[in-house]
Amino acid sequence: MAKPDRDAEFTEYVSARQAWLRRVAYLLCGDWHRADDLVQSAITKLYAHWHRAGRADNVDGYARRTLINTYLAEQRNGWAKWTVLHRFGGGGSAADPEPTPAVLSDLELGLDLKKALFRIPPRQRAAVVLRYYCDLSVEQTAQAMGCSTGNVKSQTARGLATLRGILDPNPTPVMEGT
Predict the structure, then answer these.
(1) 3-class DSSP state of 126
(2) Stretch 116-120: mean pLDDT
(3) pTM
(4) What is the pLDDT, as a whole number, of residue 94?
(5) CA–CA dist 76, 46 (Å, integer)
(6) CB within 8 A of 72, min separation 6: which ones?
(7) Tell me, what CATH number does 139's domain have?
């Protein structure tokens, strides 16, 4: 009778990590409702493979990779382009409040960074989020994205360059010797 134990273990894991998965999903897609959909899809896939995931050395890594793969698959097949999420009344309901943002020393810069993050291409965004939000190494990011370390480095460099261009479109040239 392993199934009830498996279900309890899965439920405990998801209960503990759902908020973290939702934050990562939001940083990937830029919409709380779509982030919920991504997390739900990833959790469903995780449950289907829990016999393998539950025994993994790094269950968080397995869950994160499942979330990233789900996000990237949606970007490739165009789901994000033809699905329109409607928000009635101009925002979420009181029953489904969006998380309160962390206090930032410069709130405007934080908002600009968030907007800029959502303007970079999906694979670049995934690389930047995994490297700098999830604090993964290049190798761990490559494993999570299912690509080479060189690809992670180039996607990250391009993503950061794009972010810099968006955040400071007219950089001040640095004068040598001054």
Answers:
(1) helix
(2) 87
(3) 0.66
(4) 43
(5) 21
(6) 122, 123, 126, 145
(7) 1.10.10.10
